Give the backbone structure.
Amino acid sequence: MTTIDTSAQTRADEVLVPAPRPQKRSFLDSTPAKVLLPAIVLATAIGLWEISVQAGLVNPITVPAASDTFIALFEMMQTEYFWAATWLTLQETLLGFAVGSSLGLVIGALTGTFKVFRTAIWPFVVAFQNTPRVALAPVFLTWFGFGMTSKVVMAAVICFFPVVINTVAGLASVDDNARVLFRTYGASTPQTFFKLTLPTAAPISFAGIKTALTLALLGAIVGEFVGAAEGLGVLVKEFNFQLEVASGFAVVVFLAVIGLVLYGLIELLERRLITWQH
Amino acid sequence: MASIAEVREPVLTGERITLHRVHKTYSAGEQPVLKDINLEIEPGELVSLVGPSGCGKSTMLKILAGLIDFEAGEVAIGDQQPQEGRRDVGFMLQQAVLMPWRSVRENVKLPFDIAGLKGQDVEDRVDQLIELVGLDHAVEKSPWELSGGMQQRVSLARALALDPKVMLLDEPFSALDEFKREHLGLEFTHMHEYMGKTTILVTHSIPEAVMMSDRIIALGAHPGRVVADVKVDLPRPRTAGLVGTSRFQEIAQEVREALVGEDGSIA
Ligand SMILES: Nc1ncnc2c1ncn2[C@@H]1O[C@H](COP(=O)(O)OP(=O)(O)OP(=O)(O)O)[C@@H](O)[C@H]1O
Ligand SMILES: [Mg+2]
């Protein structure tokens, strides 16, 4: 019997790949640099802010000192109304996000899968996408009242579109050659969906979901600005009316932290769900 | 040391491929893409299709894979008509088309998953296939960690997974650089010599066609039709040294001349 020895031949693939050289890594790529440099920028910014207020370069009535802002934040964190407001705004954000992104996934999946839907719905998606949707906030206030519902709806409407658009884009990104391959193996429609379409679309769709979460917080705050009795947005507005600018600033700083934490959490979830992205 | 003989027993049961008066037109009223194609490919034969871009080479493979219809004529692989999902037909494209969410191993396993096959037999077979294409050191790697040549090896292992009797290869090595292309081409030729699967190889490279094939079919364009059928009577197993022989050059020249006037891009 003839035997053909494949391993005895040199393998072109390996010959051509040069042996890994110890790479010269710049200091800028190292973790200390990635933490240290932004920290220096932040400290400098806060320092300049503090100094310019202390030196009287800006009016302390309109721009509070950094120190005053942090003191105000610390004091506020001892109060009950602050945490009640935080909880309410968080609920509005997360509920709006849940409703908006689930609907976005469903509509996006239908639009991306069925041509009828695409033809019928896509023009409206584009039209709404280019409408400043926050302009609807007063309308929602009239329809759904002063309470939580109008904010949830606002958040949902804002975060609906990036999910739709990214889901459609994700579904459209399935490689034609991969479809051909699945057909040659005689894959059924569910097999093609679960083994090809879904994993292809998931990373792109999820990028839309990430944006949606940030937008949901924005939607909730805008909703509160337009008309509400409670919530972090209400606090920002009222503190500014009362010229308690340090407290107003403090709430904004706190909102920034909430936004960052939410983003961090969803990114963590993404890394667990979509392990094949690099 | 791994040899194919240890990896698996030879099949040597390629199917015959027949095309009889095949006509294919994509849109009504236009010139046919394939016109009156008659071809008989013997079991175990390796036949290359060469010809200018757009002459219908991929179309012919898609017809054989059962992916598209044709208007007239008869096509048979073995004694059956082409059909999607035939396990006795393996298909390989210019792009490796690997799933980034699957490791090398799982990519090779895809055909078994779709066919609903599992168990220790499948696991063993997947290991053998990976060894056959020389990727045992990269089993758990992800596609993006592989070079183009390695990706194409995965694609080859996957095409061989269900032990097809017929291999349809659409420019499988074209995306590789010259050196890898020659190397993988020769390696595939040796596998073919051992396994005896009937193989149709689409290529733009006349030397590659001469090196690998038993026969070269030259197609002309507008409409796609057979302009030459050249027998390659070089000894097997093929070796890289054959390129320098005068017989090799004569055959290459014959194919080139058949294509002159068909399209400047090929010669
Ligand atoms: N799905 C399709 N619909 C309409 N026309 C098509 C389709 N696929 C291919 N064609 C046309 O049919 C002709 C043959 O295409 P085919 O892809 O078979 O050529 P080819 O020989 O494989 O070319 P290449 O060497 O560039 O890959 C071309 O003119 C092409 O434009
Ligand atoms: Mg082609």
In short: The CA atoms of residues 216 and 230 of chain B lie 5 Å apart.
